[in-house]
């Protein structure tokens, strides 16, 4: 690509200026390289160290709030509870649980009026209970769902 330079009397280039790029030249420019992500094993410690210091008053307020939400007895003792030391520590809470799932089929009955379409075994293969797709509305929440097993109508 040609570069235009202005020179002073001593013939030394003072300022060089590239001509504007055309669309064709712009389309052949390589994409800028993204800086590689570097894992920082101390990131959690650095964030932990930036947390504000918990004062005795803050600790007492947190205890009073937790007692109001979870306890059914009085909480007046927290106001007089001596707090001797407040320390911050890294902690990890892990909750493991088993969410059993079950499916069963049962008959339901309604009068046949002749107006409904009958989805019988002649319409296709009857799937098993686990082959019928029922998606949960919320993950890891107890829920009862009902669905119709296709091709099981009888008259």
From TrEMBL:
It comes from the Eukaryota. Residues 116-155 are annotated as: Disordered. This is DUF551 domain-containing protein. It comes from Macrostomum lignano.
């Amino acid at each position: 690509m040609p570069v235009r330079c202005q020179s002073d009397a001593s013939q030394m280039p003072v300022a060089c200026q590239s001509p504007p790029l055309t669309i064709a030249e712009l389309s052949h420019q390589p994409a800028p390289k993204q800086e590689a992500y570097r894992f920082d094993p101390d990131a959690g410690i650095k964030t932990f160290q930036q947390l504000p210091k918990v004062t005795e008053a803050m600790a007492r307020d947190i205890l009073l709030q937790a007692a109001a939400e979870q306890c059914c007895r009085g909480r007046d003792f927290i106001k007089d509870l001596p707090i001797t030391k407040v320390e911050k520590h890294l902690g990890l809470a892990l909750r493991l649980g088993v969410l059993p799932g079950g499916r069963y089929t049962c008959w339901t009955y309604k009068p046949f009026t002749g107006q409904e379409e009958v989805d019988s075994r002649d319409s296709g293969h009857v799937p098993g209970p686990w082959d019928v797709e029922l998606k949960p509305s919320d993950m890891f929440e107890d829920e009862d769902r009902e669905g119709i097993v296709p091709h099981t109508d009888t008259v």
